[in-house]
Amino acid sequence: xxxxxxxxxxxxxxxxxxxxxxxxxxxxxxxxxxxxxxxxxxxxxxxxxxxxxxxxxxxxxxxxxxxxxxxxxxxxxxxxxxxxxxxxxxxxxxxxxxxxxxxxxxxxxxxxxxxxxxxxxxxxxxxxxxxxxxxxxxxxxxxxxxxxxxxxxxxxxxxxxxxxxxxxxxxxxxxxxxxxxxxxxxxxxxxxxxxxxxxxxxxxxxxxxxxxxxxxxxxxxxxxxxxxxxxxxxxxxxxxxxxxxxxxxxxxxxxxxxxxxxxxxxxxxxx
Length: 271
Hints:
The protein has helices spanning 13-24, 55-70, 86-97, 115-123, 152-168, 184-207, 222-233, 253-261, and strands at residues 2-8, 26-38, 76-83, 101-105, 127-131, 143-147, 171-178, 214-219, 237-241, 266-269. With 271 residues, the protein is of the alpha/beta class. A ten-stranded mixed sheet has the order 3-2-1-4-5-10-9-6-7-8, sandwiched between helices.
């Protein structure tokens, strides 16, 4: 579970879904901090009942609506209207409250992840939950999917999934994807390593008192296979590592593709 959660609200349905998701992964001691920024380059959506409201009024209305949506599911510690550009305001508040999770909608674009969401996923030191456009409600978390591989961020995703399962009593599904582009000899070695990793994680889950996670090795494109796994398992959330970002990409290739297409909330974890 998470304890200090920052939710970026912009008045869009996906940002309200982000607030609901934050409440669903909040521990009993958790506090939610809701932030809406008066960014003229990416202004918050206006209420259809308001007549040309100011940016400040748009933010206040969006924050009040998000708080109402959360209701009694989790404690809302703060509603804040931020000024200036969205990204610096989000990162500043994240640092101020020492957030362990930042939740936001993916932006109002149908062609890919929104620029603000991509920038937060790249720059944030916390885990980042992204709810793409089209996700307007969040069910009770019962099935947690995790993309695992050797590497610090992917293993951090598995650790976070186990903690989340401890708090929600959800079942964990581990998926390791081996590239189908490997030569035959390397493919078998990669399969063997993936099998060993999954066995290690299953043992760790049992040591924590969790039911043995379902574990699966898939062969193919990592992003595509993880999306298929989410669909097959009817997962309520997918956790992955941030991977290795490059200068022209907002985050690792797989995480970036998942953020644009994942049908459930996606949590991108840091080491």
